[in-house]
Amino acid sequence: MTTLAARPRKKHYGKGSLTVATWVVAILFVFPLLWMILTAFKQEADAYTDPPKLLFSPTFDQISNVLSGGFLPYLSNSAFVTILSTALVLLFGVPAAYALSLAPVKGTSNALGFFLSTKMLPIVAAIIPLYIISQNSELLDTVWALVILYTSMNLPLAIWMMRSFFLEVPHEMIEAGRIDGANLPTLLRKIIMPVVAPGIAATALICVIFSWTEFFYAVNLTAARAGTVPVFLVGFITSEGLYWAQLSAAALLASLPVMIVGWIAQNHLVRGLSMGAVK
Amino acid sequence: MSTLSVDTPKSHAHAKAEEKRGLSTAAKRRLPLLPALIFVIAVTQLPFLLTVFYSFQSWNLVRPGSRHFVGLDNYIDVFSDATFLVALLNTVVLTVVCVLVALLLGLGLAILLDRKFFGRGVVRTLLITPFLILPAAGALLWKTTMFDPTYGLLHFVFGTDLDWLSEFPLAAVMAQIVWQWTPFMMLLILAGLQSQSKEVLEAASVDGAGRWRTFVSITLPHLSRFLQLATLLGAIYIVNSFDAIFLMTQGGPGTASTNLPYYIYQRAFEGFDVGQSSAMGVIVVILTMIVATFALRLMFRTFSVSGGVK
Fold it and tell me: In this protein, which residues make up the domain named ABC transmembrane type-1 (chain B) (predicted)?
């Protein structure tokens, strides 16, 4: 009797402590980030003290310093490059994913293998020719060079992801539509698109994240005019230790757009990353 | 294997039917694929061919007129370059350790999240955020607020004046990369855990299987394709790590935290040595291809044999 009565209680207790443990682990894990957000609202003098200051009067000085300190051109470059390259990925990628899933021909697996193999090529192996080509074609230090490169960087992965979403379209539905005399545009609009649209959104989200955060191409191929937000942050390594609060504000502002998009679309993110393996 | 395998029965049947219908339809069906294929070939393969071409030349941008054909000299130089070998070793260590640690931490966090509890949505949101902030921001953040010997949080917690970035540069960089990539692994594994069939888990518990036994015999095999995908994607991105090294240690002190992407960058953009850096690029590609073909295939086979999942 006692064991029976005690059991559920003990289990409940165990669950509660596991929840507390989960919270503690999560907060410890993201602590550097929480600390960055706190620091972004400090005065410089409060940012480096020993021991670290937890109580301080918050200020927006650093945020406004960053915004008035030349951050905005970088932000607009990032927005332009991210939006345009993601649009191009979809423009090239959706038809390709369709061709590789719902209407495959001989050589499909070769094409798929080829796309994935381009992701295996380390990007450093092509940076020198890319630098020389963009210099000769006057694309160096322009947003266009980044648009082209980010499109090619994300396209292979996007095709793989979207193909897996296209494969989820029930074959019977397409056949039934065909028998009813629907042509391809109608099939696409009425049957295929409604099923794959969330997958395409998930793919676009991943492309946005990878384009917004890309560093290597941006830092090597832009100098004065086409820098994106990660390049803006490079300015802070020369002044190490001196402007922590401002650095934190810049890091926060630079990451905020992707953070917000990612938070809102968490479930899409999971679907996109697992390439449709989740049902 | 199913997520990565391309030879689904459906596509085979389709391809066969296609053959019968004749070339014109096949060509028409290939049409939507062409723009993407041509674009990717033009932007990724042509530059690489140029890299191969440059790698046979002695060409330094600061010495005009220095460009001439030297055959395999660059390759010989690269392999006798001690820094290259250090960078190669660092790259291997960094990739293997970061992928494994991030995978294990991600698995742990995913298991913690795979149940109903108070504030679960908030905790998940918190945990994915390191993946969403700029790696460049994360690197600078760790360099300053975590590792600073006087004002850093690690100094405050451990009470030492240790300068982490010069004492343990590679480990410090790896800590940041693991922090950045753990949420990615966690999300993927969580997706796998949540796609488990509840009936199977209940059946196991009815049969008297304990938690550990259920995890090893049912959950782990089910997760194998998610773990493969996480390993593959994580490895592809982590092997190219550049941000953290560039911003935290500049490859130093000395060459202690130099990896191949950073070393090639140095030879190309600080040494202006087109020939040598191209040769290194080609070697990196060949090594990556060898690893990708053999190691990944081996790993996938081990997974699907031990897991019994196809």
Answer: 88-295
State how far residue B83 is from chain A, nearest Cα, in angstroms: 17
3-state DSSP assignment of residue B68: strand
% of chain A with per-residue pLDDT over 90: 42
Considering only alpha carbons, which residue of chain B is nearest residue A105? B15
The residues near B40 (Cβ < 8 Å, ≥ 6 apart) are A114, A115, A118, A152, A155, A156
Whether residue B67 lies within 8 A of chain A, CB to CB, comes out as no
Distance (Å) from the C-alpha of residue B199 to the closest C-alpha of chain A?
Answer: 16
Which of A52, A112, A262 has the CB atom closest to B132's CB atom?
A: A262
Tens-digit pLDDT profile for residues A174-183: 888 888 888 8
C-alpha B36/C-alpha B38 separation (Å) is 6
| B145 close contact with A: CB closer than 8 A | yes
Q: Give the H or E element holding residue A102.
A: none
- Angle, in degrees to the nearest 10, between helices A244-264 and B120-132: 120
Whether residue A54 lies within 8 A of chain B, CB to CB, comes out as no
CA-closest candidate to residue A261, choices B125, B244, B188, B186: B125
CB A146 within 8 A of CB A221: yes
* A132 CA: distance to closest CA in chain B (Å): 10
Of the candidates B149, B141, B195, B187, the one whose C-alpha atom is nearest the C-alpha of residue B168 is B149
Residue of B14, B134, B150 with shortest CB distance to A213: B134
State both tokens at B143.
């360099």
Give the pLDDT band of residue A10 (cuts 50, 70, 90).
Answer: very low
Q: Which pTM value belongs to this model?
A: 0.87
